[in-house]
Design a protein that fits this description.
Length: 109
C-alpha cells in the first residue's frame, strides 16, 4: 500500500516542534547582545544578579541609564556578556543605538 500524502498528527507535531526551534534560534540571534552596541541588562533571579554586570563594567562596558523595564542599559558590553548574564540569572538583550540616544531639543520661540 502506498504511503498517504496527508500528514498525520505525529508529522504535524514534529513540524510544529521544528518551527518552534527555528523561531527560538532566530529570536536568540536577533536579541543577543553584540560587542560594541548597547544592551539592556534585566536581572530575573535575585541571587548573583550583579555578577555579570560587575564583570561587564570591569571589561569596558559603561552604564548608559535605566531601562524601561527596570533594568540597566549598558554601552559597549564585552563579548560573552549575554551568555554570562543568562548563566547568572539575568537577560541581556540587544538594543538599537537610536533607542539609547536622547532626542534633540529644539529651542523654543
Amino acid at each position: 500500500m502506498a504511503p498517504s500524502l496527508v500528514p498525520g498528527p505525529s508529522h504535524r507535531l514534529a513540524l510544529a516542534a521544528q518551527c518552534a526551534v527555528l523561531a527560538l534560534v532566530v529570536a536568540t540571534a536577533e536579541l543577543a547582545p553584540r560587542p560594541g552596541l548597547p544592551a539592556l541588562y534585566l536581572p530575573v533571579m535575585p541571587a548573583n544578579r550583579h555578577a555579570a554586570l560587575d564583570w561587564a563594567l570591569a571589561h569596558g562596558a559603561a552604564l548608559n541609564g535605566a531601562g524601561p523595564l527596570g533594568g540597566l542599559v549598558l554601552t559597549a558590553p564585552p563579548p560573552g556578556f549575554g551568555l554570562r548574564a543568562l548563566r547568572e540569572g539575568a537577560l541581556a538583550i540587544a538594543v538599537p543605538s537610536f533607542l539609547c540616544q536622547s532626542p534633540e531639543t529644539r529651542p523654543h520661540g
